[in-house]
């Protein structure tokens, strides 16, 4: 394993291995990275296994876009994470008399209540991928599903430079006023721990945060609350951990197939995702063993998959290729940390950065 939240260090190590021609049998990776390596011709072929086990029918089309290349299965999806969640400490929520925020303004009012009670309102780690992950939700909330798709999946320039995008940056400026002074550089799981301990009210984070609550023996609706980011109900911004399978010598292929088969087995999909906080990467896994947040996540994924509102997270490597995602994270982070002074300037820089990265 390679240490470091967000996976950047692991991807750097993988790049070096592939450049040296020492392919791993499998590597955990995210969407566009899988496609990049597939394009480079270094991925294996799991199609025979996929056919035998019916992956085509059970894995959502949005995930197959990243796990199938040129008609060949090159990766085994492990899970579906969604990023448009609020994680709230219930004891703090009860103490301040708060209720589920349905609009962005409701959320700001809730953060004000926490501030007045002397609690850190928003737990955030000041790393670019965390800031951009939160901004994904803000953009969906501010502009709605069609706008999010246009801006962050289609990279439509009119949407990127629109008044709606400016308003999204205005909303980001509003919300980051509620973080504590020590947020810069904090790892995401330490921000989650602030909510678990009751030092902070809320974290905006993908459902991998729920894994931390579960590990701390906390129960949904008793110790913590999971709500969709206000204004994003009915849509899911997703990422998915995948095991990309490399083109390896025959003596390693049996292990590769065994890993892929185990990864997509219903029993593993249930057991693993219950612990990780995510939901299964196949739609035919019963929700029996999942807690209230997991059941909601599974139902939301099914509805979004059927309703055409399952969108790739730009911050998490599922909205656009890595160069564009990195340019996006960079602009959002500069705005959060005051290097970009206004929403107008942020939009100009975002359009420019994405243009340069295309």
Automatic annotation (TrEMBL):
Entries under Gene3D superfamilies matching the protein: Periplasmic binding protein-like II
Pfam families, A to Z: SBP_bac_1
Compartments in which it is found: Periplasm
Keyword Transport applies: yes
UniProt entry keywords in alphabetical sequence: Periplasm, Signal, Sugar transport, Transport
A GO cellular component entry from the record: periplasmic space
InterPro entries given in the database record: Bact_solute-bd_prot1, SBP
Lyase listed as a keyword: no
Family recorded in the similarity comment: Belongs to the bacterial solute-binding protein 1 family.
Chain's role: Part of a binding-protein-dependent transport system for a sugar.
Protein name: Probable sugar-binding periplasmic protein
Lineage: Bacteria, Pseudomonadati, Pseudomonadota, Alphaproteobacteria, Hyphomicrobiales
């Amino acid at each position: 394993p390679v240490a470091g939240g967000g996976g950047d260090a692991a991807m750097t190590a993988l790049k070096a291995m592939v450049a040296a021609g020492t392919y791993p049998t499998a590597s955990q990776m995210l969407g566009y990275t899988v496609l990049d390596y597939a394009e480079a011709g270094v991925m294996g072929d799991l199609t025979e296994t996929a056919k035998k086990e019916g992956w085509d029918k059970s894995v959502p089309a949005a995930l197959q876009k990243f796990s199938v290349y040129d008609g060949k299965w090159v990766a085994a999806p492990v899970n579906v994470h969604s990023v448009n969640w609020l994680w709230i400490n219930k004891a703090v929520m009860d103490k301040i008399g708060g209720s589920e925020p349905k609009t962005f303004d409701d959320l700001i009012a809730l953060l004000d209540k926490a501030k007045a009670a002397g609690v850190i309102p928003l737990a955030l780690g000041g790393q670019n991928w965390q800031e951009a992950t939160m901004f994904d939700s803000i953009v969906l909330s501010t502009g709605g599903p069609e706008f999010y798709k246009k801006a962050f999946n289609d990279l439509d320039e009119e949407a990127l430079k629109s008044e709606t995008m400016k308003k999204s940056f205005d909303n980001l400026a509003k919300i980051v006023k509620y973080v504590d002074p020590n947020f810069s550089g904090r790892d995401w799981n330490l921000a989650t721990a602030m909510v678990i301990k009751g030092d902070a009210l809320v974290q905006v984070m993908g459902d991998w945060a729920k894994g931390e609550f579960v590990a701390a023996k906390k129960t949904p609706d008793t110790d913590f609350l999971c709500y969709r980011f206000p204004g994003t109900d009915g849509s899911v911004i997703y990422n998915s951990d995948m095991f990309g399978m490399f083109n390896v010598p025959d003596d390693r292929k049996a292990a590769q197939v065994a890993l892929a088969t185990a990864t997509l087995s219903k029993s593993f999909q249930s057991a693993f995702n219950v612990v990780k906080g995510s939901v299964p990467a196949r739609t035919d896994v019963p929700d029996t063993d999942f807690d209230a947040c997991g059941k909601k996540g599974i139902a939301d994924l099914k509805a979004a998959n059927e309703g055409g509102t399952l969108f790739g997270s730009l911050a998490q490597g599922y909205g656009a290729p890595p160069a564009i995602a990195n340019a996006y994270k960079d602009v959002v982070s500069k705005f959060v940390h005051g290097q970009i002074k206004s929403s107008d300037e942020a939009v100009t820089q975002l359009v420019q950065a994405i243009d340069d990265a295309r």
